[in-house]
Amino acid sequence: MKEDLAIGVDIGGGSVKAGLFNRLGEELDKSVLQTSGELSNARFLEIVQNTISPLLKEKNIRGIGIGSPGPLDSETGYLLSSANFPLLKNVPISKTVRDRFSLPVYYENDANCAALGESYFGESKSYESLLVLTLGTGIGGGFVDKGKLFSGYKGNGIEIGHMTSVIDGAICGCGQKGCVESYFSTRGFINRYAEKTNNRLTNAADFFDLVKAGDKDAKEILRFGILCLAETVRNAIHLLNPEGVVFVGGITESWDQFGEDLSHKIRARIFPVLNERLKIKRGKNLAGSLGAASLVFSHGMRGPE
Ligand SMILES: [Zn+2]
């Protein structure tokens, strides 16, 4: 019998990336198309389908997993709106892809896909339950328990980046105030640094270079950011009691500048009984398309059948 395969599709800000994967997480084929912000529903759906279609040469593909930023409805498979594509509204992603290719389609928030991918193919795959935080432009989160993703009612749960760090604090991209991602994320670091210095940085690497060079303001922003993130993770641990907490995303490239301090601050703030068992680590930054393909593997394709 030929091995089962899954297609994973990662819808990002500037491109749609699709990959064909086997159960070992090996990428056998891939396809990428660029996108621009000014896309109508119809044109956007056409690009998604055109990215997937070159990968359908094999007969043994068991499904298509799709991940994108939300808000979305994972039950009906609609993307409700998108910060990257402002013209999109109520896009029927799952139905369109299912009708076109006659395969099962699963659709979830990209941070949830990242968490599932980490639990299937990351170094923490032996953990019974796993909380994953994606540290990038903002902060995303996903929770996997016994191989199954928990994404809340219709798929918009575990939005860890929008838990409150400072009541009535700095304005967040979501429109509310004081969210943790306003204090620990690329956008958060850039905005907090601009507030203090009138100097607008372009990326997180520049921010961490300033920290390394001993810049007083950057160091203070990072110190407070770590504290905010540690308190947020503490809350999440007391709520979910995961076996492991794993950090992924672009900002983990600078893990050596904050990882140890963050881990220490989290451990210092949780129940001792949780601390003894909890694992905290940096993850592998797997491809978004592999995370999306994990949606197919998690729907009845795991282990011997
Ligand atoms: Zn927010």
UniProtKB/TrEMBL annotation:
Q: Which GO terms describe its molecular function?
A: kinase activity
Mind listing the UniProt keywords for this protein, alphabetically?
Kinase, Transferase
What domain of life? Bacteria
The keyword Signal is assigned to this record: no
Instruction: Output the InterPro entries linked to this UniProt entry.
Output: ATPase_NBD, ROK
Q: Is-annotated flag, keyword Ribonucleoprotein?
A: no
- SUPFAM superfamilies named in the record: Actin-like ATPase domain
Q: Which family does it belong to?
A: Belongs to the ROK (NagC/XylR) family.
In Swiss-Prot or TrEMBL terms, this protein is called: Glucose kinase
Organism listed in the record: Leptospira kobayashii
